[in-house]
Amino acid sequence: VVVGTESCGKSTLTRYLAKIYNTMFVEEYGRTICEEVGGCDTILTPEYFPHIAYGHKMEEYKALQQANKLLFIDTEAIVTQFYSELYTGQTFPVLDQIAKEQAYDLWLLMEPDVAWVDDGLRVHGEEQVRLHNHEKLRQMLDERGITYVTLRGNYAERLQGAMQHVDQLLKTTSQRAEIGLD
User: Fold this and answer.
1) Span 1-38, pLDDT tens digits
2) Alpha helix (H) residue ranges in the chain
3) How far is CA 180 from CA 166, 169, 176, in A?
4) What is the pTM of this model?
5) Which of 96, 134, 99, 93 is closest to 113 using CA atoms?
6) Exposure check for the chain: N or C terminus, fewer CB within 10 A?
7) Rounded Cα distance, 52 and 74, in Å
């Protein structure tokens, strides 16, 4: 799963990884909803966020049925909880419950060190705000005991780093299967 704040390269990395590894990916469902309603920061009411987390999980389950050994996922329930708090000031126990039940093999946390892109939906482009939001998300991951790999640098460096971690995961999984541990 690829996580991070807005405009840090999550979607780009997820799509590239899926293409390179010839498999499926899951788009950020919250973004799909934002595009449908015309924005996130003022239009989304608190009731949207549990729906976003549920819809995202359904997209994961569907993609898993077609995936080729790997499934790359753009965002998950902790990030949805982060945005719920950011946009509405509210958190939802159901989002925490969904987050507790998530079991991803690899978490990639994107640093906000690439240029912020104004795509019409993003609103948190000021450098200090980006850094603050990143630290808040990092804190949420740490509080939940999530082990993650941080990716930084330009897009090519991020892709290379992600591929190294994915390849290591595949190698470890293959080795475990060979000795009968999986």
Assistant:
1) 999 998 889 999 999 999 999 999 999 887 777 777 66
2) 10-20, 29-37, 48-66, 77-88, 93-101, 127-143, 155-178
3) 21, 16, 6
4) 0.87
5) 134
6) C
7) 13
